[in-house]
Design the sequence.
């Protein structure tokens, strides 16, 4: 059948997306309002039911067309760069799944309304998460793009994680949530890898296109399918990954009902159903899927028989039934698709009802343990009816939906050769177990397994809440009614199941479900299953030793626990090796790697350009001699100050080199910054001991020298290799050519900084801002705020630190004159910078040097007097001005950082051309000044923060002068 | 580039590396400064040398390459920022320990030795496993 898309359904796409958004909005609103919802809980539950109800309504409008074999699709561009689009597709099978998701969704929310009779905020949050989950599930079954499918798949895992762990104070709940997330999440990652391999092999990531035109069988496809199945098996709790599902029973019953029986765990089944008809041709498909499915069915059944907790019994029963469904769908024939579809519907109805019953028992009696549950009184009749019908349907008793489903499931394997017969035998054996645990469930629910029997009037029962209100049971009764109606008149499903089957396997014949097909293999097996199961239950004491084999099934939770601990142990070992905590080791490894890896790549290519000339210009010789000599001196001296000063002199020599290379901007900047750095070093080093004390051992020195030599050798080779290359197209020439016409500036370097590469400069300013904040934070953390200090000083608790600066009027006046002159110079550099050497950076640093002059004359107060605002405000204002200048062109229809200019005719001065780049540069200028001021703010004032350093009270030593004048922490 | 300048850059890198591998923060800062200078030398000496690139001041063909200059200018300012931050670290270290020596990070090392993380990560998991498997033990 070719699915046609009718043009009049163009609106449908928007409707689906609106539906998904509705879930998101409602769920988000409930979570956001969960703290305040107490007074309006009824409203909250009503609102929560809306998205699922709307989904049902939308589905009802679409269903007639979908059952006719047409698919509705929606398409929205999402991440065109990656070729991922929001492709949604509603076909017959998706409609069937959607019916379960939305139908059970509405009932579960109605049920939760009574279950959380006096809801806590956490319960409302849970409700919101349920709605979000429902949205993710709707997306999952509609997704037609593999990546979109994966996204929704993970969203269901995440909402499931949050729902299981909703009671976050409970360690068990948290562990259960984590286990579910880890197992399904790891499976999903494997699945994602499989999707990518499959998509690459098929040439498309559209699921419908892959299934319509599958890639030819090959090892690649095998690998893809195995990976995808890993995701499906973990999600649907197939052995050996099943242990997370019983653990997930830590969640409240509405969650278990919805996620862990009716919908989410069926996602794996859904995926297997989608792939089976196409990929069943692979040699590995049937052996793999059938073995896993049948094993899971048997194992789940065996373990269900041994549970005392009714909810755990149902959880293992769910695992068993999921195995059944995987086995049926996995067979891949049209008949199997029909059988599986019927099974999906029947299972959702009876298992959800059974879970609801367990929740009611738990809610009213305070226990789910079959050994403690009392026998029901009269008011319990509706609950018991629901329990009985659910159990009977689960067991496959005729006149109920479960019977029809089981027959159809069996039918898929009849006349299918030896493999089919073998699988059928396994499934029949599984059905015997199913019948036995169904009986056990019912017997437990009505208090027949209590030992000794608990009478209705016993203490436990009196302490409990008595029979449930009818409204509490009503959702379960609705499902009971569905189970009965579909059991008696299965033909009602015919249209939907036919559409579902055809959506999966196009050759599916018209389905006619019926109660009576005559005496055949399926009926015989049903009889055997019921009789065998009943016998198994009745003779449970005698065959107990056989059932005890269930105990020897290796517990999967143990494997999970072992894996968890193993990963932690390995991580510890790796950490112990990789993280020794020593900075020199870290840096050594980093530097060696940085030298050796590119070094190997360099040498392995044709890299050697030949030796260049020994010396380019004579001026280089003294500069190089200075650089190397001063660097050596900086590394050898044992005094900190001397080291810092030698570093400064290396910087000045660099300035000389820049002049020789034709880079006056660099020379200016370097000189200014060396001046500022020297001040900075002095401010900090005056605290530290004068000399380095420790002398490293010879071995360590040898290692350091070895690493240093390797690094130096790499740099040498690299520099020669790079210098020998002549770039084919010279970007720089283009920049020189563009500088004036495009950037309105003659100084090409400045135009590059503020215009061509303006974004880099903006990023650099951001880095500077972060550095400045970090510096102040590091230096000032632990100090008291200034006003506290002042208040204490007034109260006489502390004497204000005496000023050590001797005020010399002549010095102060001359410094102010020089300051004004230097500031003027820095402004000239700023304004001239666009056309001559200079610019915001240089200007700012020169101004910073001027600020340091003021510091020298009057200390921090003198620096603070410079501006009313705090230094960080100067810095922030600079950043702000630059950002605004960069953005303004956007509003004028240009691009970010586009330059504009305007010529003003000023009196006296004459025409003056102002470019927008100037404002950008003013921002840079202010930011650099702010940085300089923050440096003084950090290190400049009272060197003894009282909280950390020595106590200054009483001893009169304030240590404001340079040198290590303060004994360490002696006051404490 | 000339052999001389390549050697100079390599020397600055080597000396810087030697200093960086020590434990005193002030030496480390000096070392990092030398490495920055070395990197800047590579930038300006491996590219075209010439007149200052000011339009109108000469023939553009004789200009020094302006792009590495812009990059180096940025690098100079950024390394000043890095120096300031590292000096703040040294200052902080002095406040706390009266020295600027970088001690081994004991916590770092203990992460690899301790098993407390394991216990934290499966708190509840063992209990959960016993809850789920409980029935079989009886």
Sequence:
């Amino acid at each position: 059948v070719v699915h046609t898309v009718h043009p009049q359904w163009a609106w449908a796409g928007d409707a689906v997306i609106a539906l998904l958004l509705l879930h998101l909005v409602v769920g988000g609103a409930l979570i956001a309002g969960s703290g305040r919802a107490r007074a309006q809980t009824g409203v909250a539950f009503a609102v929560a039911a809306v998205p699922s109800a709307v989904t049902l309504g939308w589905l009802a409008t679409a269903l007639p067309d979908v059952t006719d074999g047409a698919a509705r699709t929606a398409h929205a561009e999402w991440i065109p760069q990656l070729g991922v689009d929001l492709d949604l597709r509603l076909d017959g099978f998706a409609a069937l799944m959607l019916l379960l998701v939305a139908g059970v969704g509405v009932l579960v929310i109605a049920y939760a309304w009574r279950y959380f009779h006096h809801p806590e905020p956490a319960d409302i949050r849970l409700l919101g998460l349920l709605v979000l989950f429902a949205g993710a599930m709707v997306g999952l079954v509609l997704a037609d793009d593999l990546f979109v499918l994966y996204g929704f798949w993970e969203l269901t895992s995440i909402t499931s994680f949050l729902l299981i762990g909703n009671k976050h104070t409970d360690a068990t709940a948290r562990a259960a949530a984590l286990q579910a997330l880890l197992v399904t999440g790891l499976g999903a990652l494997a699945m994602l890898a499989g999707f990518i391999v499959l998509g690459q092999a098929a040439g498309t990531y559209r699921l419908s296109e892959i299934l319509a035109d599958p890639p030819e069988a090959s090892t690649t496809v095998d690998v893809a399918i195995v990976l995808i199945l890993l995701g499906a098996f973990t999600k649907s709790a197939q052995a050996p990954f099943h242990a997370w599902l019983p653990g997930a029973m830590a969640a409240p019953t509405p969650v278990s009902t919805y996620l862990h029986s009716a919908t989410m765990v069926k996602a794996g089944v859904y995926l297997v159903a989608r792939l089976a008809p196409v990929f069943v041709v692979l040699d590995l498909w049937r052996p793999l899927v059938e073995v896993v499915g049948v094993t899971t069915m048997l194992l789940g059944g065996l373990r269900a028989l041994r549970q005392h907790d009714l909810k755990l019994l149902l959880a293992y029963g769910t695992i068993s039934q999921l195995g059944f469904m995987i086995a049926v769908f996995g067979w891949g024939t049209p008949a199997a698709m029909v059988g599986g579809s019927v099974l999906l519907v029947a299972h959702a109805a009876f298992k959800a009802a059974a879970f609801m019953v367990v929740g009611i028992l738990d809610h009213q009696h305070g226990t789910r343990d079959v050994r403690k549950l009392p026998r029901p009184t009269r008011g319990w009749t509706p609950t018991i009816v629901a329990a009985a019908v659910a159990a009977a349907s689960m067991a496959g008793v005729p006149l109920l939906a479960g019977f029809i489903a089981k027959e159809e499931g069996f039918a898929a394997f009849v006349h299918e050769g030896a493999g089919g017969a073998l699988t059928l035998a396994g499934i029949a054996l599984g059905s015997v177990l199913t019948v036995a645990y169904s009986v056990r469930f019912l017997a437990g629910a009505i208090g027949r397994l209590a030992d000794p029997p608990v009478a209705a009037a016993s203490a436990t029962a009196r302490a409990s809440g008595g029979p449930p209100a009818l409204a509490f049971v009503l959702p379960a009764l609705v499902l009971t009614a569905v189970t009965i109606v579909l059991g008696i008149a299965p033909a009602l499903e015919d249209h939907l199941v036919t559409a579902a089957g055809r959506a999966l396997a196009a050759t599916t014949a018209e389905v006619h479900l019926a109660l009576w097909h005559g005496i055949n293999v399926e009926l015989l097996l049903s009889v055997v299953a019921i009789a065998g199961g009943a016998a198994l239950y009745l003779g449970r004491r005698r065959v107990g030793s056989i059932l005890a084999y269930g105990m020897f099934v290796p517990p999967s939770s143990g494997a999970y626990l072992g894996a968890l601990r193993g990963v932690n142990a390995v991580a510890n070992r790796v950490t112990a090796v990789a993280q020794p905590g020593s900075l020199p080791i870290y840096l050594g490894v980093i530097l060696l790697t940085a030298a050796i890896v590119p070094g190997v790549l360099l040498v392995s290519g044709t890299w050697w350009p030949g030796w260049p000339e020994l010396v380019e210009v004579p001026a280089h010789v003294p500069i190089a001699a200075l650089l190397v000599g001063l660097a050596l001196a900086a590394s050898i001296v044992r005094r900190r100050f001397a080291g810092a000063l030698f570093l400064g002199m290396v910087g000045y020599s660099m300035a000389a080199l820049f002049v020789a290379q034709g880079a006056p901007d660099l020379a200016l900047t370097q000189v200014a910054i060396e001046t500022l750095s020297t001040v900075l070093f002095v401010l900090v080093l005056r605290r530290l001991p004068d000399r380095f004390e420790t002398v490293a051992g010879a071995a360590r020195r040898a290692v350091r020298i070895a690493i240093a030599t390797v690094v130096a050798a790499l740099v040498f080779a690299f520099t020669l290799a790079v210098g020998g290359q002549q770039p084919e197209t010279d970007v720089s020439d283009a920049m020189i050519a563009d500088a004036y016409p495009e950037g309105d500036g003659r100084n090409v370097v400045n135009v590059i900084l503020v215009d061509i590469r303006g974004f880099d400069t903006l990023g650099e300013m951001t880095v500077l801002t972060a550095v400045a904040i970090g510096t102040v934070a590091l230096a000032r953390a632990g100090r008291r705020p200034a006003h506290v200090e002042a208040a204490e000083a007034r109260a006489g608790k502390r004497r204000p630190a005496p000023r050590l600066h001797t005020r010399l009027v002549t010095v102060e006046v001359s410094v102010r004159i020089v300051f004004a002159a230097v500031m003027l110079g820095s402004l000239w550099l700023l304004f001239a910078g666009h056309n001559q050497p200079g610019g915001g950076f240089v200007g700012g640093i020169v101004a910073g040097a001027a600020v340091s002059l003021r510091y020298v004359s009057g200390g921090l107060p003198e620096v603070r007097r410079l501006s009313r605002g705090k230094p960080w405000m100067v810095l922030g204002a600079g950043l702000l001005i630059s950002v605004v200048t960069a953005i303004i062109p956007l509003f004028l229809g240009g691009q970010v950082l586009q330059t504009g200019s305007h010529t003003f005719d000023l009196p006296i001065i004459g025409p003056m051309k102002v470019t927008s780049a100037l404002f950008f540069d003013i921002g840079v200028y202010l930011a650099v000044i702010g940085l300089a001021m923050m440096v003084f703010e950090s290190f400049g004032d009272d060197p003894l923060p009282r909280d950390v350093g020595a106590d200054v009270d009483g001893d009169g030593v304030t240590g404001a002068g340079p040198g290590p004048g303060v004994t360490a922490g002696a006051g404490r | 580039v000339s052999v001389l300048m390549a050697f100079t850059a390599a020397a600055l890198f080597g000396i810087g590396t030697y200093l960086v591998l020590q434990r005193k923060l002030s030496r480390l800062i000096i070392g990092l400064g030398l490495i920055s200078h070395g990197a800047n030398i590579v930038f300006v000496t491996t590219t075209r040398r010439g007149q200052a690139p000011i339009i109108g001041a000469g023939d553009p063909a004789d200009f020094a390459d302006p792009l590495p200059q812009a990059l180096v200018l940025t690098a100079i300012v950024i390394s000043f920022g890095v120096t300031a931050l590292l000096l703040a670290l040294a200052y902080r270290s002095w406040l706390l320990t009266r020295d600027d020596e970088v001690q081994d990070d004991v916590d770092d090392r203990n992460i690899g030795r301790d098993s407390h993380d394991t216990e934290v990560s499966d708190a509840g998991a063992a209990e959960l496993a016993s809850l789920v498997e409980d029935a079989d033990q009886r």
